[in-house]
Design brief:
- This protein is α/β, with parallel strands linked by helices.
- It has 2 domains: 2-130 and 251-322, FAD/NAD(P)-binding domain; 134-247, FAD/NAD(P)-binding domain (3-Layer(bba) Sandwich), CATH 3.50.50.
- It has helices spanning 13-24, 39-42, 73-87, 167-178, 201-210, 255-260, 310-322; strands at 2-9, 29-32, 91-92, 99-102, 108-112, 115-124, 131-132, 145-146, 159-163, 182-186, 214-216, 220-224, 228-233, 236-241, 244-247, 251-252, 287-289.
- β9, α4 (167-178) and β10 (182-186) form a beta-alpha-beta unit.
- The longest helix is centred in the N-terminal third of the chain and has 15 residues, at 73-87.
- It is globular.
Length: 323
């Protein structure tokens, strides 16, 4: 059994920020991360470029210098590694939290594999990138279906269907087409998302207009088979020969885990977790939320740049309770 004043779940930018604030306040803490440092960013597409500027991605008063206004995934990974090393953060990697129980003394018992931690204060910074929004259609379990995109090389000379009309789908459609894939987009809405990155939107619109990339709007996938997919369009069902389906349908928080922690989920369209606006404490005493997980299904509400002050809010609340 390992005793810590604060246990932080998740070593993304928000978890790292909380760790920095905990160290500044001389709190004995540990960050439990099921994967690698900034695990979600690590699993972003290899050539991804952020919409935010490098300045808006800075944490811990460490400057983020990039080669252009919009930093790349690789630059972000290097930056957060430098932050981790500069503050000598106490992060335990490859530690998946499997259970959390409230003890009679009011402390939490946090179990992750072969280790158990006891703590009075728990900060949950698990984000939303680990759980894709599923299509729930026949054939989704086939190996040709991908809910995460890495790089275009796999799809050279292949017939791919990209599902979605927002940033990720447009990025994927363009990059795979540029590398020689035969690309078809299936978009549920009547047009592409209007807030697609401003340097991407005209490009994808022009490729669709000229027919280089086929697009079916107001349409949805109905079935996936090994050799083809079936699409429901305004003109009826259509079968398309297909090698891969790249479902860029978005992601959601791990609601099963949040419920396991005893965190109430609002029964609204966004399914936001219950928390105090002033302290970010959940309905569970001394259990706090940080980062994008706060938005529930509203995954475009919170970003690194508008969650950077949350660590100070949480750690200030914890520090006051120690006195």
């Amino acid at each position: 059994m390992i005793s810590k004043e604060v246990v932080i779940i998740g070593a993304g930018p928000s978890g790292i920020n909380c760790a920095i604030e905990a160290s500044k306040k001389n709190l004995d803490y540990v960050v439990l991360e099921k994967g690698v440092l900034v695990n979600s960013l690590f699993n972003f597409p290899s050539n991804m470029q952020f919409f935010s500027t490098s300045m808006n991605l800075e944490i811990g008063n460490i400057p983020f210098i990039s080669h252009s206004d919009k930093p790349t995934r690789q630059e972000a990974l290097e930056y957060y590694r430098r932050v981790y090393e500069f503050y000598n953060l106490n992060i335990a990697f490859r530690r998946s939290v499997v259970d959390v129980q409230m003890q009679q003394d009011g402390q939490y018992l946090v179990e992750c594999g072969f280790e158990k931690y006891k703590t009075k204060y728990l900060i949950v910074a698990t984000g939303f990138y680990d759980k894709p929004n599923l299509l729930n259609i026949p054939g989704e379990n086939l190996s040709k279906v991908k809910h995460y995109y890495d790089e275009a090389h796999h799809y050279i000379g292949q017939k791919i269907v990209v599902i979605g009309g927002a940033n990720s789908a447009c990025d994927v459609a363009l990059e795979t087409w540029q590398k020689g894939a035969d690309v078809t987009m299936v978009v549920r809405q009547s047009q592409l998302y209007e807030k697609v990155k401003y340097w991407i939107l005209p490009n994808i619109q022009n490729r669709i207009k000229e027919g280089s990339i086929r697009a079916y709007f107001s349409s949805e996938l109905r079935e996936i088979r090994k050799e083809f997919v079936t699409i429901k369009t305004p003109l009826g069902l259509k079968q398309i020969e297909n090698d891969y389906v790249l479902a860029m349908t978005g992601y959601q928080p791990d609601y099963a885990f949040l419920k396991k922690l005893g965190i109430k989920i609002q029964e609204d369209k966004k399914r936001t977790p219950a928390y105090s606006e002033s302290t970010l404490e959940t309905n569970q005493k001394n259990m706090f939320l940080a980062g994008t997980v706060l938005g529930g299904l509203h995954t475009s509400k919170y970003f690194i740049e508008n969650t950077r002050d949350q660590a100070k809010t949480i750690l200030s609340a914890i520090t006051k309770r120690r006195i």
